[in-house]
């Protein structure tokens, strides 16, 4: 029954190197951005400015990589959970992953929207200019609130996600964590 959740997709037997690379690059960038934004609050003006300038470029990178990743996942599918996975666990996992895709796109999109009404030009790591969205002050204000709320919701979801990964590894003792780790020798596909 749990597998009915996956039937619409093609079923690879493991995550590809591209999916694994995108997962971890995006995870590191998101965590760096949360830490950076919090560190900027306690920093002096100049340091805060430098951190937030990197924050915006990192965030825009997350937006682009997440769209690539979503496209990759839609085109290539994802491996099924082990058959022994309880149905409630499969549902929580699917819901968490779906919510993550929403946050990975909505958080930077809200950030981009919120700074688009401001006076400062946007650029990507000082290398090239990044266009601003044609938004009103009101929409930018709404996007600011959304950015903060959604960013902290992402952190909450991350706690659940890591707990899930550890449950699979330590309690279920299945391959769910190791199949998302780079450089781990994978078993011969069996399904
Ligand atoms: C991976 C994507 C991103 C994450 C996880 C993220 C996360 C955060 C967090 C946690 C805060 C601190 C909120 C607070 O304590 O008030 C913040 C603030 C901020 N973010 Fe992002 N952000 C991302 C992308 C972006 C992007 C793409 C932009 C703009 C292009 C942006 C612009 C800002 C700005 C200007 C603030 C300061 C807001 C303020 O002064 O209240 N962020 N972000
Ligand atoms: C903000 C950081 C993170 C985000 C946004 C994130 C997001 C996701 C998403 C969307 C998936 C679904 C698979 C896919 O479509 O590629 C996934 C799978 C996975 N993640 Fe994360 N992840 C993050 C951090 C972590 C961390 C720190 C761990 C380590 C404990 C982890 C372990 C896993 C594992 C083991 C899977 C495979 C689950 C399965 O096979 O069903 N993730 N992650």
TrEMBL record:
Transmembrane feature ranges: 21-40, 98-118, 138-163
Organism of derivation: Novosphingobium rhizovicinum
Bilayer disposition of the protein: Multi-pass membrane protein
Assigned protein family: Belongs to the cytochrome b561 family.
Subcellular location: Cell membrane
Needed cofactors: heme b
Protein's name according to its UniProt entry: Cytochrome b
Chain segments annotated as coiled-coil in the UniProt record: none
Domain of life: Bacteria
Pfam families linked to this entry: Ni_hydr_CYTB (PF01292)
Keywords: Cell membrane, Electron transport, Heme, Iron, Membrane, Metal-binding, Transmembrane, Transmembrane helix, Transport
Residue stretches making up the Cytochrome b561 bacterial/Ni-hydrogenase domain: 15-182
């Amino acid at each position: 029954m749990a597998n009915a959740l996956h039937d619409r997709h093609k079923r690879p037997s493991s995550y590809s190197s591209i999916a694994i690379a995108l997962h971890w690059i995006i995870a590191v960038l998101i965590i760096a951005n949360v830490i950076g934004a919090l560190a900027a609050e306690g920093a002096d003006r100049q340091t805060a400015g430098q951190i937030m300038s990197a924050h915006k470029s990192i965030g825009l990178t997350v937006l682009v990589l997440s769209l690539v990743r979503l496209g990759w996942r839609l085109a290539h599918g994802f491996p099924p959970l082990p058959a022994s996975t309880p149905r409630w666990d499969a549902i929580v996992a699917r819901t968490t992953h779906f919510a993550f895709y929403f946050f990975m796109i909505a958080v930077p999109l809200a950030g981009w929207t919120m700074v688009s009404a401001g006076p400062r030009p946007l650029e990507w790591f000082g290398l090239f200019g990044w266009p601003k969205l044609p938004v009103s002050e009101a929409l930018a204000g709404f996007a600011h609130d959304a950015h903060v709320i959604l960013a902290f919701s992402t952190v909450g979801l991350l706690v659940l996600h890591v707990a899930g990964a550890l449950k699979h590894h330590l309690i279920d003792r299945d391959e769910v964590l190791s199949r998302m780790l780079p450089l781990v020798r994978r078993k011969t596909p069996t399904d």
